[in-house]
Amino acid sequence: MTADTTFKEFVEEEGCAFSLLEFDSPDYRKLVKRFNSVKLKLRTKEEARLHERAAQLLTQDGHSVRLPS
Asked: What is the predicted pLDDT for the residue at 57?
């Protein structure tokens, strides 16, 4: 899964037929929860990489950088 993966694609990657999935069923809610969790992890990792890269660029320019914890 990538940051661009849609919920439909995610469902199909999980081996389920999206067209047979009933809205708001327990299976649907479980898939939505997992999808959102994975998306959040991917976004968090990407933001961390961007902050790290920005710090590297600023340090290369001779500036000292202290990022918030």
From this structure: 79
**Inside any domain, residue 1:** no
Task: Report pTM.
Answer: 0.69
d(Cα 21, Cα 30) in Å, to the nearest integer?
A: 11
Residue range of the domain that includes 30? 7-60
Distance of CA 60 to the CA centre of its chain: 29
Q: Residue 63, Cβ neighbours under 10 Å: how many?
A: 9
Residue 14 lies in a domain: yes
Reported as a single tens digit per residue, the pLDDT across 16-39 is 999 999 999 999 999 999 999 999
Query: Is the Cβ–Cβ distance between 1 and 10 less than 8 Å?
Result: yes
